[in-house]
Amino acid sequence: MKFCSLYSGSSGNSIFIGNEHGKILVDAGLSGKYIEKALIDIEENPRDIAGIFITHEHTDHIKGVGVLSRKYNIPIFANELTWGKLESSLGKLKDENKVIIDKQKEIKDLLITRFDTPHDAVASSGFTVQSGNKKVAIVTDIGHFSSEIKNTIKDSDIVLIESNHDVEMVKFGPYPYMLKKRILSNVGHLSNDDCGRAILDIMDHKQKHIILGHLSNNNNYPDLAYETVKNILIDENVDVNKDIFLTLAKRDMPSNYIDI
Ligand SMILES: [Zn+2]
Ligand SMILES: [Zn+2]
């Protein structure tokens, strides 16, 4: 199974997952052109994408979805409540490309499982994708790391998890009070510290690729996110080059192309 973060951050998110049989995207939150370019950069043909799975209706996750669906006739998968919010933002779509995902879908030999995430969208989701005995998990836009999420993702080989902000940078930064409150709430975004603790929670005997993603452009720095999480792990005797592989997803180009 191949995994690649095409783009990750508050400015737009899209993740490619696939194998020789089936290929999907989770979110397409930049323009269609940007997503096409990223796919071509990793030598994938946009025509081969068999589905776009939507985590939630915020623009940084859906911006290119309508364009890509129309141009390449790609089905879009979202839960029913999210569809209620998507209809007006995605433009005209073929009825057959509007697919409701409740819990699970199979695309070729990929098994995609949806789970609830705590975020201020109507019904936001995370996804795991399984093929054979390999499993990938996408967990971004979460206000806190719930036990449901933990149980769903803990046996994954690859986890892309949100390391959105540094709490002090949010508190003392320029955002208006209400926005700060939203980001720091239980249904906002996961801080670097909480991300580190979440990773500790899913440590087991299985060696994992852990990718830090969805970094805020205003309230974080890549080095700060990485060092904060790394230090939390090292303090608990985790070897970040052996027990897990810890990396960062890039904001504006494909990164973490992993073949497992
Ligand atoms: Zn969001
Ligand atoms: Zn987001």
TrEMBL record:
Q: Which domain of life is it from?
A: Bacteria
Q: Which residues form the Metallo-beta-lactamase domain?
A: 11-189
In Pfam terms, one family for this protein is Lactamase_B_2
Provide the protein name: Beta-lactamase domain protein
Q: What species was this sequence derived from?
A: Clostridium cellulovorans (strain ATCC 35296 / DSM 3052 / OCM 3 / 743B)
